[in-house]
Design goal:
Aspartate Aminotransferase, domain 1, 371 residues, 33% helix, four-stranded antiparallel β-sheet, Aspartate Aminotransferase, domain 2, 13 strands, alpha/beta, 10 helices, 2 domains, seven-stranded mixed β-sheet, globular
């Protein structure tokens, strides 16, 4: 088993206790359900807009019922979970807890999710890039090169996205574990699994008992269709989770969002989610085949997410044609190496048919013959 991840936390935060909110203070084991709560300077009357009369109270920072439900969903214990405002907050907390501003570094593997670099740079932390390799079978990650870059720069965090966004690539768990073992005295390896439900692979959460320097990001925004509720979590060693909680804002989870998240992971809701995931996976293959057959498409990359990365001979014309048909996709012109690419989310069967139909109407001059 690897050493404690607390050894990797910023030295100046080792004795940091954070802010003790009114809801986090322990009040003993007595039943306080009917108590008069006068410890948080809340209004004694509800707002007229609050029909349930529950929003005048500050929410539980880490609701027990939601933690238990998510722990069951992700195959961990509640002590291994920190719930927050999407994966973005988890990324930010990890950077703040482990990286000294102006002194430490993080490693990323572009093209990848941009918030890793954004959070690091806002924190005054250097970003070391180890680009993915573009090959005939799609994008791959050289984890040996990642390890060397982390060691050469004494990086404290390594961010891996699996399945990758926007490339759709998937990392083998054995390779992630080997990387974490190699860096266990130096860095936390963060595996962003926002799209894992579409990949049919076990989670890196299974590696944490053996490699305590692995942290996993999960979210209800994608497969569970709660993007607007902003519910994400970090799964990690309990010692690291406790440290992240000390760095978190006092009341990160709005009570209505907590209630929605609880409903979204109930058994009947999860059954519906599983069915929709299966539909997306099937549609992903159908859409990829149709796009690959188009004379205007240069390349369709294999994907383990709910999206496709597609290179076009004329991406501007393709984007404009889709927009004219009322379809908005993600243009990647600002991403180095993907200037000719669009990222297309796999929609419903009807929506995907609309995409295929719209691109079929591109003028002949846009195709390969004009390139």
């Amino acid at each position: 088993m690897s050493t404690s991840p607390l050894d990797l936390v910023r030295p100046d935060l080792h004795d940091f206790t954070g802010y003790a909110s009114a809801r986090s203070v322990r009040l003993g084991g007595q039943d306080l359900s009917s108590a008069t709560w006068l410890n948080a300077n809340e209004s004694p009357w509800p707002n007229r807009a609050d029909g349930a009369a529950r929003l005048r109270r500050y929410p539980d920072p880490q609701p027990t019922v939601l933690l238990e439900a998510l722990a069951e969903l992700y195959g961990c214990t509640p002590a291994q979970l920190l719930v927050g405002r999407g994966s973005d907050e988890g990324i930010d907390l990890l950077v703040r807890a482990l990286c000294r501003p102006g002194a430490d570094a993080v490693v990323t593997t572009p093209p990848t999710f941009g918030m890793y670099a954004v959070s690091a740079r806002l924190h005054g932390t250097a970003v070391v890039e180890v680009p993915l390799t573009d090959g005939v079978d799609g994008f791959t990650c050289d984890l040996d090169a990642v390890a060397r870059a982390a060691q050469d720069t004494a990086a404290k965090l390594v961010f891996l996205c699996s399945p990758g966004n926007p490339c759709g690539n998937l990392l083998r768990l054995a390779s992630i574990e080997a990387l974490a073992q190699r860096l266990q005295e130096q860095a936390v390896v963060v595996v962003d699994e926002a799209y894992l439900e579409y990949a049919r692979q076990p989670s890196a959460v299974t590696l944490i008992p053996r490699q305590r320097n692995i942290a996993v990001l999960r979210t209800l925004s994608k497969a569970h269709a709660l993007a607007a509720a902003r519910i994400g979590c970090v799964v990690a060693d309990p010692d690291l989770i406790l440290q992240l909680r000390r760095c978190q804002a006092p009341y990160p989870l709005p009570e209505p969002c907590v209630a929605l998240a609880g409903q979204a992971v109930e058994p009947h809701a999860r059954e519906a989610t599983s069915s929709r995931i299966a539909t997306v996976v099937a549609e992903r293959g159908r859409l990829a085949a149709a796009l690959a057959a188009s004379p205007w498409v240069r390349q369709v990359y294999p994907s383990h997410g709910n999206f496709l990365l597609v290179r076009f001979f004329d991406p501007d014309a393709a984007f404009a044609r889709l927009l004219a048909a009322g379809i908005v996709v993600r243009a990647l012109a600002a991403v180095p190496g993907l200037e000719d690419a669009l990222r297309i989310t796999v929609g419903s069967p009807v929506q995907n048919a609309d995409v295929i139909r719209a691109l079929a109407r591109l003028p002949a001059t846009v195709g390969a013959g004009a390139a």
